[in-house]
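Figure S4 source data
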Amino acid sequence: MSEVKRIAVLCSGGDSPGMNCAIRAVVRTGIGAGLEVFGIQKGYAGLLEGNIRALDVSSVGNILQHGGTILQTSRCPEFMTAEGRKEAANLLKRKKIDALIVIGGDGSFNGAMALYNEHQIPVVGIPGTIDNDIDGTDYTIGFDTAVQNAVEAVDKIRDTANSHARTFIVEVMGRKSPAIALKVGICTGAENVILPTATIDYGKIVGDIDRGIKRGKTSSILIAAEGEVEGVGHTIQKELKEKFNLQAHVCILGHIQRGGNPTPTDRLIASQMGHQAVKALVSGEFASATVFRNGKVVIANLKDCLRKKNEFDVSDVELLTLLSI
């Protein structure tokens, strides 16, 4: 058993639905274990500012159903420096906080790992990112909600696309990760999915659309992951018009995918992860992370979760291709 008595929790990087569920589980599991629990406002930036407050059972009441994070979040360039991390460690020690739980993505996890390696601050990471792109875990908090938000939007777009016999390019999030685009493509019956790192085969796109028209389809939906270059949807639109005389409309879903009520899946997994994170600290499993493997939330080494995971299941592409004929 560890000597951890006072813990803090923060969210870092992009927000994701379900973060509040994880915060709630951390606070109530911690209090149930006899710990004092603190919330750090606005991520690592708030830590450097000393923006820390005590949390009790009532602090996390009625937050399960809300997206975003009651602790807010940010990106903090200062924490990326050795000097910034030293100040953060000193501040935690001055506040007599024994351990830190970090909810975020690979960048947030790397910051937590550095804090542990350089200053021996006990840390546990909870993977929270809508892109589902953290190595070492099958699932990250927020992914299911983001897909649900995107699917609902595409279903509405399909209605108007059918009414006007139009082609729509719907741009979803995923700078490097294909996860959202692939799942949304399958779930909405999209004719094509453009992945962030793939070469775009415009001839195939046009051929697939023409084939659908010949068998009586009145609309076509292309799902495009946003990629790292801004405006991929408009780039595809321009190419289709100039080279193939194919008119298409662009709809960029943007940050609507991040918000809204977390799905039951995100609420459950986030709650399980928050609970396990506190248990890891109490049992002395420092520099660890809560991960979802084989249908269960378990504890793993944080060092196994420091990279992005951008591969995809080839069978998903095969399924999409087969069902979109």
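Figure S5 source data
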Amino acid sequence: MSATRRIALTGGIATGKSYVREQFERLGVPTIDSDQLSREAVAPGTPGLAAVVERFGRGVLQPEGSLDRHKLAAVVFADKDARLALEAIIHPAVRQATERWFKSLDPARHPFAIADIPLLYEVGRDRDFEKVIVVASAPETQVRRVMERDGASEEEARQRIAAQLPIEDKVRRADYVIRTDGTCEETDRQVSAVLKELSALREGC
């Protein structure tokens, strides 16, 4: 095998991607989190943070100089052009870091690995992966989770969800779908089933 096979994990905001990624990791599959890479791309002292300040001003910073993600979110989710400008700053760094990570893996030990990329379809990165797993839940479940998790109003929650492709559009394009409206145990069973299928693909090659 010449390289670790690339599997993408995606879905909508607050559909449970992080939980699903953690379950794959627990079962021995290497994973990488694009949200974490995005935070690292705009950490204090990085070119990414400097570019964000140049574009959005110092009003998006905390008093000590780190990025205030809530203030920035309020700007970019209300303005498509602002959101695209932020993505143009962050996405190249995330993509490069993801590429380095996959290349660092030993295919003999890790025949496949998973990258959690929330905006996979929106930015056309699905073409970079052999298979795509979509984590999905009902839109009303997403709204409730965003409000509970982020302290957002219902309007803000719906605004953030609307900034992404509708979840059922992603489901239609997926190779595998994991639905998270049920219990953790139900989600875990779906993760195990997808892992079994991915392992069978590996064994069949």
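The first helix runs from residue 17 to 26. The mean pLDDT is 95.
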